[in-house]
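Team,

Forwarding the record for the chain on the shared tracking sheet. I've put the sequence and predicted structure together so nobody has to dig through attachments.
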Amino acid sequence: MALNRTLEAVTDRIRARSEGPRRTYLDRMSAAAAEGPRRAHLTCGNQAHAYAATGEDKDALATGRAPNIGIITAYNDMLSAHQPFETYPALIREAARAAGATAQVAGGVPAMCDGVTQGQTGMELSLFSRDVIAMAAAVGLSHNVFDSSVYLGVCDKIVPGLVMAAATFGYIPAVFLPAGPMVSGLPNDEKARVRQQFAAGEVGRDALMAAEMASYHGPGTCTFYGTANSNQMLMEFMGLHLPGASFVNPNTPLRDALTVAGTERAAQITALGNEFTPVSDVLDERAFVNGMVGLMATGGSTNLVLHLPAMAKAAGIILDLEDFAELSAITPLMAKVYPNGLADVNHFHAAGGLGYMIGELLNAGLLHPDTRTVAGEGLELYTQEPKLSEGRVAYAKGSGETLNDKILRPATDPFQKTGGLRQLSGNIGRAVIKISAVAPERHVIEARARVFHDQEAVKTAFRNGEFTEDTIVIVRYQGPKSNGMPELHNLTPTLAVLQDRGLKVALVTDGRMSGASGKVPAAIHVTPEAADGGAIALVRDGDLMRLDATAGTLEVLASLEGREPAPADLAGNGNGVGRELFEVFRQNVGGGAYGATVVV
């Protein structure tokens, strides 16, 4: 199948835009790879320190003939998605030995949970944790004794930070090993219903707690299709996972076999063998375009509109909002997974999952088929399905058909003809909106503005009965320079209640929402942000505004000329729960439209 012309044009534009930084990046990676195995350049004393506690692997490390795999782990046992990683290093070391290699934990990186910090002060560190993760992984790999690397991470900022680190160390291979989603619990739509009932005062906290505990109930990723599971999709579409690895449940024989297979592959693709696959060759323009197409086809999290530009920049590639918008316009929405539908990721995987989708999109000319991946040459490998055979992974041809067309549809007969992500622009800046779960009659809203400087003030106004007409809710001074750009997902139940009462409401913010933002139209990542001189700081209560997701516009229908920015008291944003340590991040972070990065 010939490539879609728009796909080709967007890829060519990214390639041209990135020519200078990409060339510099590839030259640096080539020079580093040409130096050969990293350990050869260390002194005997350097190496003795590195191998002192390796026991039975010491001789293999000292002779330097076996590839050494560096493990970067985001393990902690507070995050359900990362708790399974506790046992991975032992399994990886054992698998490496059996493959004639060695493995060491190079370092750990922090992994915070947006679910725990949602609506709390700690959420103001969440986005910045991505850059900290990249730096922490770099510290681990800086010992320079590794021929390959494996990355253990799943959730929201963790995978993007790890990819930024992998790209920075792009002269060695990188294989990402996931942990998988928890088994299905309370259906996500039932959980959302109870949240809305609580927001409306119809049920008490005991009912809310019972619903939350029944939904988030065991090891693994939360089962809705938010940022964590969007990350897993992305790693498969971009060729950093093994095929079919994303959505196999934790603590199952197939999950362990995929971890072993990933370790073996990390050993096979080093410069010491015949299939050298440095990650700099995997992460090219085509891989990032494939990742964006996957985001649109699955209705994935808007947080990846922040993360993909940051990941790409680490590999010398420059992405822009126009790339996302143009790819969304040609990509069919093939999946209905909560919040876009009632199914969870386990149901999606059982219906055919990513392998089916990749096959369909390849056949439609909507993916680059000729990318390099950790599994080998070409994305066609990712249409295969992993099976367990005598305790090991064996790949079989995928079924090539959906097993539930209420969850997963072919590219020729999708749920929607486009991916549902739009770029908005107008007299208060640029923003993005995800409309795949928003009813068509809510794609255009013209209403008066109500302006707030934090989400708690919105909820207070709601409790006081102040929302009595169609309203565009402005929540500003929530960008990365203001307070680290916390998610405003706590507003979703409140705004959904207003919507269910018959009002037309929308959110406009220089902050962000999660992949679970759902049915309420939300123009997010407004750039420039209020604290960076953005015109969103000029909006006043009562201003007539128009949000038009069809035309791609976001306008205040009045002149902003001569207005002074509304002041905001940001003094309290710099202290408490560790915020003191991130002042340098707030001062130097880039805009939301460009990835909100500090370190790349």
